Amino acid sequence: MTLGPVLVFDSGVGGLSVVAALRGRLPGAALAYVCDNAMLPYGLREDAWLVRRILAVCEAAVAASGCVALVVACNTASTLALDALRERLRIPVVGTVPAIKPAAAHSRSRHIGLLATSATVSRPYTQHLIETYAADCVVRRVAADALVREAERRLAGEPSDPGVIEAALAPLWEDPELDTVVLGCTHFPLLRDALAAAAPRAVAWVDSSDAIARRTAQVAAGVTLAAGPGPSLATAPDPALAAALARFGFAAPRPLVID
Ligand code: DGL
């Protein structure tokens, strides 16, 4: 029987926002991390290119890490490439999709916001989620790509820029009844306190990390997980990324080379 870690994949540091939930559900299991930070941000990339890139990165990282399951901790990648990944890889693949369903369940006013990348807010997959789970809600979709860099900067130890955060959130507040905001990009929970501080009133911020961890634990029940630390990999390793990964218990990233 093959033993291996669970591999967490994102374009950058966003996947780190699901690590605590994963460790909570899979105590002691080895987690590995891979990010395609050479090509960040994914949210502004063209779809066909992105599918090819995601397949290439995940295939290489699965081989390099020896993982037994893959968590695509990226809404932008999942809403586009989950089917292709499942077809290509021989291991279970858990995806991340915007938490429209829990947000709709939580909202009293039936006015919710979706804060995500440009790609995610405009995907048919997202439209389908809204029609399926929030058909009776007014959903305000806000593309907030600037917050991806903001989260990367924060994890690199740089101060947040309140002006960038306020400008990114501003379209949400045009709906005075909005009471719940979906953090539909895994980078955004890393800024949760700054987002809440910039909000003109209290709203609920809902993300997908618990759902991802729950689903990963179900999937992991059918595979044999290694214990202890797993490797980390990046397409552009650098000291700031190594420091961010270290804060989440990962070793310094090794370079992942993509042909
Ligand atoms: N963290 C990613 C997501 O969940 C994408 C960030 C990016 O644009 O690269 O959508």
Automatic annotation (TrEMBL):
PROSITE patterns: ASP_GLU_RACEMASE_1 (PS00923), ASP_GLU_RACEMASE_2 (PS00924). Pfam families: Asp_Glu_race. InterPro entries: Asp/Glu/hydantoin_racemase, Asp/Glu_race, Asp/Glu_racemase_AS_1, Asp/Glu_racemase_AS_2, Glu_race. Transmembrane segments: none annotated. GO terms for molecular function: glutamate racemase activity. Pathway: Cell wall biogenesis; peptidoglycan biosynthesis. Its EC number is 5.1.1.3. Substrate binds at residues 10-11, 42-43, 75-76, 186-187. Belongs to the aspartate/glutamate racemases family. Provides the (R)-glutamate required for cell wall biosynthesis. This is Glutamate racemase. The lineage of its organism: Bacteria, Pseudomonadati, Pseudomonadota, Gammaproteobacteria, Oceanospirillales.
